[in-house]
Amino acid sequence: MPASMRWIPKGMRVSYLAKAAGTMRAVATIPPIDPAAGARDLDVKVSIEDPNGTRVFEATITMWISPRKPL
Fold first, then answer.
1. Which SS3 state, helix, strand or coil, does residue 36 take?
2. Cα–Cα distance, 34 to 39 (Å, whole number)
3. Could you tell me how far CA 57 lies from the centroid of its own chain?
4. How far apart are CA 35 and CA 70, in angstroms?
5. CA–CA gap between residue 61 and residue 14 (Å, rounded)
6. Cβ atoms < 10 Å from Cβ of 60
7. Phi-psi sector, 38: left (phi>0), alpha (psi -120 to 50), beta
8. Cα separation of 51 and 5, whole Å?
9. Overall number of domains in the chain
10. Which of 17, 22, 26, 28 is the most buried (most CB within 10 A)?
11. What is the rounded distance in angstroms from the CA atom of residue 4 to the CA atom of residue 70?
């Protein structure tokens, strides 16, 4: 997230895909952000895998992103 932007979570869609066991690894994928594009919704994809590489969880978090107000 560019330092000139702020984010507020608006919602989340979740899928539980398999039983989870062990130490998990989570990855969030954020699309490129152009601060000049102004305020908008942004979907962030999250996936979690178990130690065997099996995907056990997926989510899409909708964020409201907007320019930070000047200090």
1. helix
2. 10
3. 13
4. 14
5. 9
6. 13
7. left
8. 35
9. 1
10. 17
11. 9
Q: What are phi and psi of 66, to 5 degrees?
A: -155, 160
Length of the chain: 71
In tens, the pLDDT along 18-33 reads 999 999 999 999 988 9
Tokens describing residue 18: 């398999």
Token reading at 4: 């000139």
User: The tokens 């994928």 sit on which residue?
Assistant: 29
For residues 8 and 64, the answer to whether their CB atoms sit within 8 Å is: yes
Closest-CA residue to 1 (of 31, 45, 41): 31
Interval 30-65: pLDDT, tens: 988 988 889 999 999 999 999 999 999 999 999 999
Instruction: Work out the end-to-end distance of the chain between its first and last CA atoms, rounded to an integer number of angstroms.
Output: 18
User: How many Cα atoms sit within 13 Å of 27 on the Cβ side?
Assistant: 7
Q: What are phi and psi of 54, to 5 degrees?
A: -80, 125
